[in-house]
Amino acid sequence: MEQLSYTYSNLLECITYSDLMENKSLIDYSARVLASKSAQRKAAEKSFLEDGVKEINISGKKGIKFKTIEDKLISRLLVRNLKKSYKISRVNRHDIIKNLIINLKDGSPYNIARLDIKSFYDSIDFKVLLDKIVSDGKVSRYDINLLYKFKDSLDQKMISGLPRGISLSATLAELCLQEIDSFFLKEKDVFYYSRFVDDILIIHHGGNNKTVHY
Q1: Are 62 and 159 within 8 A, CB to CB?
Q2: In a domain, 52, yes or no
Q3: How many domains does the chain have?
Q4: What angle, 0 to 180 degrees and rounded to 10, lies between the N-to-C axes of helices 29-44 and 69-86?
Q5: Which has the closest alpha carbon to 14: 62, 116, 83, 60?
Q6: What is the pLDDT of residues 47-63, one digit of tens each?
Q7: Which of 77, 81, 87, 210 is nearest to 66 (CA)?
Q8: Where do the Reverse transcriptase domain residues begin and end (predicted)?
Q9: Please, are residues 142 and 48 in contact by the beta-carbon 8 Å criterion?
Q10: Which residues contact 190 (CB under 8 A, 6 or more apart)?
Q11: Which residue in 23, 85, 92, 174 could disulfide with 138, CB within 3.0 to 4.6 Å?
């Protein structure tokens, strides 16, 4: 398996514009290098999330944020590795609408089904997901240990499912839905399938009363 190592240069690339706006000292390049090297040391010492996470409220739902820039950078590099291992890429809304219009111009009879997974993030069984990641063998043992530390930090806050507010949760949620994507894309009656997070759109040739079991 080919994955990015937790070197300061790779971690440096994980610093975003929002980090600079949140911490003005990072506007200085030397400060960003220092933060990245500090994150590298933390990764080497296997002390990711040793201070836990901070719980926040996002539109009435439980969310979290990382307490340190080091944890934030390590988690982002972990996200890159997960996306690389599972070939995770998210389609943007503009492309979905564009492709939908093209398919609707086909002219043949069709049915449209729109699905929304209720309380999706909250309903994810993180333990089951972790077991799947381990059994798949696509992720390094080091990254798996990071995921277990992430789960431990959520358990300490008694947070079930995946919390909102961080890219790691979004990536893990995408991983959860890959099997559903694969299922519908293989259905012979489905000629268009698209998903944006937990919002699913299906166009199919099946009868009005057709029921799909998954």
Answers
A1: yes
A2: yes
A3: 1
A4: 70
A5: 83
A6: 999 999 999 999 888 89
A7: 77
A8: 37-214
A9: no
A10: 184, 202, 203, 204
A11: 85
In angstroms, the first-to-last Cα distance of the chain is 31
Query: What residues make up the domain containing 96?
Result: 8-204
- As a whole number of angstroms, the distance between CA 82 and CA 178 comes to 13
| Residue 1 counted as domain residue | no
- Residue 201: strand, helix, or coil: strand
For residue 65, what is the DSSP state?
E
**81 found inside a domain:** yes
Residue 214 lies in a domain: no
State the DSSP H helix or E strand holding residue 149, giving kind and residue range, or none if neither. Answer: helix 141-156
Strand partners, 116: 199
Give the residue carrying structure tokens 């890959």: 178
Closest C-alpha to 6, from 100, 131, 133, 145 = 145
Cα(64)–Cα(154) distance, integer angstroms: 9
- The predicted-structure confidence for 78-112, as pLDDT tens digits, reads as follows 999 999 999 998 777 788 788 877 777 766 778 88
Q: Taking Cα atoms as reference points, which of 2, 45, 36 lies closest to residue 16?
A: 36
